[in-house]
Each structure stands twice: as C-alpha cells, then as structure tokens.
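Hi, here's the filled form for the chain we discussed.

Project: internal
Contact: R.S.
Residues: 459
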Amino acid sequence: MSRKQIHLGAHFPGVNNTTVWADPRSGSQVDFASFEHLARTAEDARFDFFFLAEGLRLREHKGQVYELDVVGRPDTLPVLAALAAVTERLGLVGTINTTFNEPYELARQWATLDLLSGGRAAWNLVTSSDAFHGANFRRGGFLDHADRYRRAAEVVQVTRQLWDSWDADAVAAGETFLRPGGVRPFAHTGPQFDVRGTFGTPRGPQGHPVLFQAGDSADGREFAARDADVVFTAHSTVEAGQAFYADVKGRLAAHGRQRDDLKILPAVTVVLGDTEEEARDRARHIREQQVSGPTAIAFLEQVWGRDLTAHDPDGPLPAEDPDAGNVSITRGRVRHHRDPAALTRQWREQAEANGWSIRELVIQVGDRGGFVGTPESVAAEIDGAVQADACDGYILVPHLTPAGLDEFAARVVPLLQERGSFRADYTGPTLRDHLGLGPARPARRSGGGVGTDRGQVAR
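And the returned structure, exactly as it came back:
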C-alpha cells in the first residue's frame, strides 16, 4: 500500500519578530541573494513551493513605527518573477490582498507569472477589514468583515472568468497570431464589480494559477472549500489538525469537489539537534533570542492597553488591570484575543503557578509549537501527522534568513524519502503537478458569444 505523499513549502520569513537577527548567521531580508538562497535550497530538496508573505504597512506601537519588528519588504510579484529565472521546478507562491486590488490587474499579474515561470505560479488570497492598512488604499480604509469575503469571492469569480476567456490553444504552437475564436470578450456584473472587455494575457500552463487561502473563521473555511486549492493554516498539533482537516474537507462535497482537490498545510517551525536534549536546548535558546525584554513588554502592552515600560521584563506581571477600551496601542498586527480581562486573569494564574516573569510568560504563551528533536524523530512526527490526516504537509517557517532551511533539507528530507513519503524528484513541471491537483479546466460556456456573468456569489 502506497503511503500518502507529504507536501512541503518554504516560507521566507519577514514582517515579524520571529526571525533571530542577533544570530551572526542572519542575513538581509531584502537582498535578492537571500530570496535566491532559500528558493534554491527548497528546490534542491524537491519542495513543492517557495512562499512569500506580504506586509502592506509598517506596524506601529504607541504611535511609532515598531522598530523591534522585521520591517520592509520588496513587492511580491517582482521577487517571484526574478526567482522564476533562477529556479526550474519550484512553485512560486505570493500573497496579494483581494480587498484593495482589482480583478483585471490581479488576473493579468498572475497569468503573466504563470507564463514566465512555466506554470509554477500560486496566489495566496488574503482579505483585510483593517482600516489601518486600508487607509493606504481607500477612503474610509476598510470593509466590514462579511463584505471582505463577499468581495474576495467575486474577485476569484472574475479572475477565473478572465483566465477562461483564452483557450489553451488560442495561439497555435509556432504561430504568432491568434486563432479565430480563441479569445472571447468578457462581461461581469455583480455587487462589487461591473467590468467588460477583452483580456490581454494568454492562458498560463496551469490554466489557473494555484489558489492558496488562509483563514480560520466559518467564512474563511467555507471560502476555502469553495474556491481554494491549498489552505495555509495555523493548526499544527495532530489533534487540532485532524479536527480542522475533517471540517474543511467535509465541506468540499457541497461544492462539487473531491477530497484531494484541496490540500491543507499548516505553518510550523523546526529545531533539530543531534540528541533530543540538544534540540530542546536549541529551541529554548531561539525563543529567548526572539523574545527580548522590550519585545516582552510590547507584547504585554497589546493586551493591557497601557504603557508598561516602567515594568521590569524579568519581574512579575503588572498589578493594574487592562484598559479594555484602548485597542489601538499596536496597529498592523493581528489580534487573537477578544477579552483582555479574562486573558490577563489566565496569565496571572499561569505566572503564579510556574513562577514566571513577564518575559518567561511571553516566551511560553507565544510558543506556536512545531517540531523539536533529532532528524529521525522529526521525520517520524511529520510523516505520522500526514498519514493520520492531520494535514497534507507543512509550510516550514525558519528562524534564520536565508539559511534557516539548510539543515532540514540536508538531514530530514532524506529520511522522509527513505520512508517513501516524499518525492525523490519532481514528476512534472508545474506546481499543480507537485500538489497532485491536475490542470484547471475552462468553465463551461454557452452560445459562444460574450460571457456575461451576473455575479452569483455564494454568501
């Protein structure tokens, strides 16, 4: 019986304070050499794809640009286009927001990348209802939470219509002219967009670029089940992963899709050592480097809604209660807490029970899990989680730029290959080949004329 195959992605770190810049091996997050190093490492190890996140605005803390974050990032699409020239098979995944961009330009950009890369493009669809980011793009700055998913669904609908307006053989091999009828006008009228014309970019090798989606709300899960090819999730434990996996995969049939039409890939960190003890010591050292004293205080200020710089990060938690009304002390970072008073009570209980200082508490509660151990034990855990349907693979987030993936590629990947769970070589040229998705097919058309679409967006 063949084993379920593991899918692996390489996440280029940045726009966060996870990267350990104090490490002497740490390099630039903006030099192209850094992007190239991680991409080449991933391709040599036969990873499915390279993944690039997006930051639309520098984060602020107490009204100032937050200098403890890794800040600044070149535009996603030029970086991926440049990587297409120095790699041959590696998928190229970029994060581009659906809330602040128009379908025509998005369809053209991603179709172009798919053409330039020979069918390796993937678009990570994200939304934003955050007025802080939105102020860079639109008057009023935001859309309501429900409206952002309605807009995202219609963006996907329109971009697919544009990609499908070109036949795969609209330009015959060796020819320079369009085949008659190979390209049709498009027209779409819906709640968000009223557009019509002709699409100027040929259909890419994949038909449609692969669509990634990240979102854990009920709306996000339904959006993924309807429209995504890959879900980028934070459920990294086996139990949480199995619950998420069963829920999202269980939604596919309602949209006429099969179980393998959607891949679920959590983001994880990996710390290796020659022994389990050495790996745990290394992981502890990395967390201590990631959470400096000022970082710990800033983290607490987000929950307390107060200036806590007078407090010693190696001392006890603040005695004062949080200011629940001050929710904007940090802007530009996703908040996962909804009840500061309840959270501070919980943290005080944990700190008292374990004798933790502020910094020790932040190190503990900010730990997002991952794999820590010898190459053999990490390979066994990764393989076991995939075989148990906790996920279909992982997106690895290294703590060093750009060499943070090197050790995993050299020491863990060969063990996964020995288990028969990970490819020894690529079997096809496109990202859809790597993920086992198959090429996207054009939507069915009727009448052969203008494809008017009235924007029937699932709510």
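Let me know if anything looks off before we file it.
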